[in-house]
């Protein structure tokens, strides 16, 4: 039986790690592109580690960067993937206001480089584009596949560019290319500067007496928050369908940042109002006030449906933070095992 090969950009990120896990479970050979960094950036993948010298190894990492189109093309030639999942991006909205040019270059033009590499190598692979609800921006909810875009950040603008580039390669060159328009999705693996992870970490640390306060910006913004592990399944389903198409992936419910904080702090027996302080540095020059996705097309055509909503998500994230808190060292504790760290190259 031929083993399917997938290439994932952004494999070291939250979604990349869940998707790699899912595809390995499904029997795929998984190749991931990672950036060279001066410190290890593969922590989210450590549990999937396989010695690349073993004949059973099915996870392989390669150095590459969205700013280097030549490298993307040579990797495609080498790996010959059946499916390409393009998840890499400068994904932080607030940071995109500080670094608009870099965000455009990676999140926007990086998509063109990858699609152009696929087109020029002539590979018959299927392509997934990580599009975002941030593209809807100021357009009121509920948002669905035909809702007009009105992005409110350099990140949102770059994602709109990437969305239309993906559609253009589908229409112009017949590429099997899809946009997954995913609403916010979180997990214990979420980057520590996104608001849900920031709140969950702080709730656990405050409960443990390790800190007193948490500084946040706008508490009134409302998001449709789902669970990342369920959302990567939707990505895979999109690439298994007969026809390439675009899909919204969301829970269909929303809550405010304040509500999410309430869920997290209540779970550990605290009142968020006693601990949250305001810091204007976390405000954005233009905000997205309210996102709620209508994922009925994905339910109808792909059979995808989420089971985890914000309250459960908050609890599972806080539980993970509590479990990860540093334990006081006791003489009887045995020495910790050395963490396996993936190396590439
Ligand atoms: P994430 O945790 O921030 O991961 C981003 C990934 O992109 C990381 O692996 C990062 O590598 C990589 N990357 C960044 N710049 C790169 C470059 N120049 N070259 C190569 N790789 C680069 O993001 P995520 O939450 O997993 O999201 C995955 C994708 O979905 C992103 O495109 C994001 O914009 C989009 N999205 C996310 C959500 C959400 O709620 N999570 C919703 C809609 C869309 P390092 O580890 O080295 O930094
Ligand atoms: N990060 C952060 N930090 N956000 C805060 C803070 C804070 O201290 N205080 C309030 N917020 C508010 C933001 O203003 C925003 O309205 C909301 O919390 C969510 O912020 P983030 O968690 O940073 O996520 P995001 O919605 O801006 O962007 C995420 O979701 C998009 C999909 O809609 C990212 O994952 C994007 O990559 C993704 O495309």
UniProtKB/TrEMBL annotation:
One of its GO terms (biological process) is 'de novo' GDP-L-fucose biosynthetic process. Its cofactor is NADP(+). Residues 7-317 form the NAD(P)-binding domain. It holds the Pfam family GDP_Man_Dehyd. GO terms for molecular function: GDP-mannose 4,6-dehydratase activity; NADP+ binding. NADP(+) binds at residues 127, 213. Coiled coil: none annotated. It catalyses: GDP-alpha-D-mannose = GDP-4-dehydro-alpha-D-rhamnose + H2O. Its EC number is 4.2.1.47. Keywords: Lyase, NADP. It comes from the Bacteria. Catalyzes the conversion of GDP-D-mannose to GDP-4-dehydro-6-deoxy-D-mannose. Belongs to the NAD(P)-dependent epimerase/dehydratase family. GDP-mannose 4,6-dehydratase subfamily. This is GDP-mannose 4,6-dehydratase. It comes from Streptomyces himalayensis subsp. aureolus. The lineage of its organism: Bacteria, Bacillati, Actinomycetota, Actinomycetes, Kitasatosporales. The gene is gmd.
């Amino acid at each position: 039986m031929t083993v399917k090969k997938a290439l994932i950009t952004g494999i070291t990120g939250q979604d990349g790690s869940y998707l790699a896990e899912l595809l390995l479970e499904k029997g795929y050979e998984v190749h991931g592109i990672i950036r060279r960094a001066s410190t290890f950036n593969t922590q989210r993948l450590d549990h999937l580690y396989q010695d690349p010298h073993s004949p059973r190894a099915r996870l392989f990492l390669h150095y590459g960067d969205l700013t280097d189109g030549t490298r993307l093309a040579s990797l495609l030639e080498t790996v010959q993937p059946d499916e390409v999942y393009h998840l890499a991006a400068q994904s932080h909205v607030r940071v995109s206001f500080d670094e608009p040019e870099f965000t455009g270059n990676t999140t926007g033009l990086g998509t063109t480089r990858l699609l152009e590499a696929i087109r020029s190598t002539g590979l018959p692979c299927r392509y997934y584009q990580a599009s975002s609800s941030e593209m809807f921006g100021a357009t009121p909810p509920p948002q669905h596949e035909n809702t007009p875009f009105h992005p409110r950040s350099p990140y949102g603008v770059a994602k709109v560019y990437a969305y239309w580039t993906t559609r253009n390669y589908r229409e112009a060159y017949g590429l099997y290319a899809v946009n997954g328009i995913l609403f916010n999705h979180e997990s214990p693996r979420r980057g520590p500067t996104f608001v849900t992870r920031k709140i969950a970490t702080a709730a656990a640390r405050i409960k443990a007496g390790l800190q007193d306060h948490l500084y946040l910006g706008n508490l009134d913004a409302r998001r449709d928050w789902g669970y990342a592990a369920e959302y990567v399944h939707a990505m895979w389903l999109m690439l298994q369908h007969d026809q390439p198409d675009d899909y919204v992936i969301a829970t269909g419910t929303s809550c405010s940042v304040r509500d999410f904080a309430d869920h997290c702090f209540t779970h550990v027996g605290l009142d968020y109002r006693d601990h949250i302080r305001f810091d204007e540095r976390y405000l954005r020059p233009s905000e997205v006030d309210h996102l709620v996705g209508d994922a009925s097309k994905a339910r109808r055509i792909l059979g995808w449906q989420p089971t985890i909503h914000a309250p459960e998500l908050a609890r599972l994230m806080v539980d993970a933070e509590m479990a990860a808190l540093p334990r006081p060292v006791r003489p009887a504790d045995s020495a910790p095992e050395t963490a396996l760290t993936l190396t590439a190259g």
